[in-house]
Each structure stands twice: as structure tokens, then as C-alpha cells.
Design goal:
binds nickel (II) ion; alpha+beta; Tetrahydropterin Synthase, Chain A
Length: 137
């Protein structure tokens, strides 16, 4: 299997808070991410497409094209935004990195016509990483 990955960065703020839980529970679960006025992360997004190399170009997908798709579909919506307040596809969701990865997948999957979306990987920080490969609920 051939896998091709494009890496992009975005910065955004968020607040993780579940209104069904008490303030103390929210604080215990989400820590800094529960800060009432939100706080920021410098995210790294890696999108991987699987496929066969085109006999003419030798490429699974043109990485310039992949970059443009990711930029338009995802980065332009989330970069330098407040994920809870500014991003329509995250409305009424708790914007954990897990939720971001699944919502990104939904938007991106239909835009990739060459090869097949294989994986979305988001680094929320250097040491915290979420991977989504589609499927599940
Ligand atoms: Ni956070």
C-alpha cells in the first residue's frame, strides 16, 4: 500500500466544557482546556491518502493539490479562530482533538477524488496526538 501524507499547521483556541457536568467536574476532566475564556493550541494536522501511483505522473496524489484541498476545506475555517464560537461544523460540540479529527474526516473525505483518505492525525501538542481512520461512530 502506498501512503502519502501532507502536514499543515493551524492555531486555534477552544474551551472544553460539558454543560451536563458540574463546574468542578469540568475542571477535573479538562484542566486548562476548561478555562472559561478559552485557551490556544498550535496544532499540527497530517492528512494521509492511500492509493496507487498514476502511471503517467508516478504520484498517488499531487501534494500541491492535496494541500489546496486541506487549506480550503479545513485550515481556512479553523486557523486563528475560536473553535467553539467561529467554526460552524463544530457548533454545539465539545472541540476535543478527537472530535476535530472526526469532523475533519467528514469534510475532507468527499473532497479527495484521487486516492482515498486513509488517516487524519492531529497533534494538539508535541506529546498529545489523535489518529482517526474513519469508521466507527
Ligand atoms: Ni486546550
Amino acid at each position: 500500500m502506498l501512503l502519502v501524507t501532507k502536514r499543515l499547521h493551524f492555531s486555534a483556541s477552544h474551551r472544553l466544557h460539558n454543560a451536563e457536568l458540574s463546574d468542578q467536574e469540568n475542571k477535573d476532566i479538562y484542566g486548562k482546556c476548561n478555562n472559561p475564556n478559552g485557551h490556544g493550541h498550535n496544532y499540527i494536522l497530517e492528512v494521509t491518502v492511500a492509493g496507487k501511483e498514476d502511471p503517467k505522473t508516478g504520484m498517488v496524489i499531487d501534494l500541491k493539490l492535496l494541500k489546496e484541498i486541506i487549506q480550503k476545506t479545513l485550515i481556512d475555517q479553523v486557523d486563528h479562530s475560536h473553535l467553539n464560537l467561529d467554526v460552524s461544523f463544530l457548533k454545539n460540540k465539545i472541540p476535543t482533538t478527537e472530535v476535530l479529527a472526526k469532523e475533519f474526516w467528514k469534510l475532507l473525505e468527499k473532497k479527495i477524488k484521487t486516492g482515498k483518505l486513509y488517516e487524519i492525525k492531529i497533534f494538539e501538542s508535541q506529546n498529545n496526538v489523535v489518529i482517526y481512520r474513519g469508521g466507527g461512530k
